[in-house]
Amino acid sequence: MPHFKELLKRSGNVPLALIVTIGDHRHHVLRALLKESARWQYLELTIMIGPSTSKTLDALNDCRGNFPILRTLDLYVPSSNSLPNSLSAFEDAPKLRTLVICATMVDKFLLPWSQIFNFRSPHVDRGQLFEALKKAPALQHIDLGGNKRACLSSSDLDDSLITLPEVRSIHIPSESSLDALHLPGLTGLSLEYRDFGSSMSSFVTRYANSLTTLEIDLLNRFPPPILPVLSALPHLERLEVYGPDQDNSAIKSLTVPSESARDPLLPRLQTLHLGFNIDVSDDLYDMLESRSPLSSRRCRETSIGIANLLSVYLGVRRSWGWTDILPKFRERVKAIQDSGMRIQIETGYVYNVSHKFASISSQQARRARYSHS
């Protein structure tokens, strides 16, 4: 404990980024940290339910109004339905904008919902999720990735509808039903892709004319069933795909066809990020060439014009002989790069980090194992 206090003293007045787990034996740590609450800027707080949980909540709540620079709050409460009393400590945090809640119940968390811009919730119960979103009109980014309860169907919620006019991007499992959400400003969609059912098809169709960015994590599905999604989004300008493509089917689907009878997928695509183990192949070169200014296919008549592909990121498979093949491929695409296409190539699998605004913490692996019956 003396060393801990000395560290706090040495940090002076700089803002603090904290990862804190509070059980039954660490209240002395919490008390020391609460004396510096005015410096808290980023907080990951895990509350383990136990005999002294009420004491923990009281200590936090006594500091309500003393978090003037707190911008990001990540709450992890495995047994939130067993909280003995409410957590109101952060209700008056004037700069809080990013909120992550790993808990099934949120009704005991008194929070400044009206000022939250970024919200992530992998576990919140459906009914409580609906109530929370109703109180957050300023939301700009929503992440419900991994939330099997992310089913906001109006038929299950008494035909209720939430309009969130400021939301620009949403991250969801593809089996979600979200017809109770109205997102008139939505431009970005991120999918954990398991199945492209009727509910998700309806969601994508509803926003087909506004979506310009799509990120798909195929979750190791093979073959990658992305054609139904891509076919529905003619205005897409940026595409990121993660997952297997063992037969190059995704690459082939993105190649501008040479025959004039068929319009290409994603005619406005300008940025492409393929974060799976793709092969350095003729199929890959043909796709890049077909979307470059060098392509003869671009001279043909089409009902929709084809945009130049400006930026490409490729996660290339380390297959047999790749040390010889990759340099030759780099040389081969040099003419395409010279025509104005920026191409970045890396080897090995590239994992998708979907939580763009949320914390990537040392507790993430443990939270991934946290499940609810």
What does this structure look like?
- The protein has 11 helices and 15 strands.
- It is elongated and about 70 Å long.
- 35% of the residues are buried.
- The two termini are 39 Å apart.
- It is an alpha/beta fold and 373 residues long.
- It is 23% helix and 20% strand.
- The longest helix is centred in the C-terminal third of the chain and has 11 residues, at 322-332.
- Residues 299-304 and 349-373 have low confidence and may be disordered.
- Among the domains are: 1-116, no CATH class; 216-359, no CATH class.
- The strands form 2 sheets. A 13-stranded parallel β-sheet has the order 1-2-3-4-5-6-8-10-11-12-13-14-15, with no helix packed on it. It has a two-stranded parallel ribbon with strand order 7-9.
- It has helices at 2-10, 27-34, 53-61, 126-134, 198-206, 227-231, 249-254, 282-290, 322-332, 334-338, 364-369, and strands spanning 16-22, 40-47, 72-76, 98-102, 118-120, 141-143, 162-163, 169-173, 181-182, 188-192, 213-217, 238-242, 271-278, 311-316, 342-347.
Number of strands: 15
Give the overall pLDDT as a whole number.
Answer: 80
Would you list the SSEs in sequence order as H and E? Answer: HEHEHEEEHEEEEEHEHEHEHEHHEH
The helical percent reads: 10-25%
Can you give keywords for this protein?
13-stranded parallel beta sheet, disordered C terminus, 11 helices, two-stranded parallel ribbon, alpha/beta, elongated
Fold blueprint:
Elements: H1 2-10, E1 16-22, H2 27-34, E2 40-47, H3 53-61, E3 72-76, E4 98-102, E5 118-120, H4 126-134, E6 141-143, E7 162-163, E8 169-173, E9 181-182, E10 188-192, H5 198-206, E11 213-217, H6 227-231, E12 238-242, H7 249-254, E13 271-278, H8 282-290, E14 311-316, H9 322-332, H10 334-338, E15 342-347, H11 364-369
Parallel strand pairs: 1-2, 2-3, 3-4, 4-5, 5-6, 6-8, 7-9, 8-10, 10-11, 11-12, 12-13, 13-14, 14-15
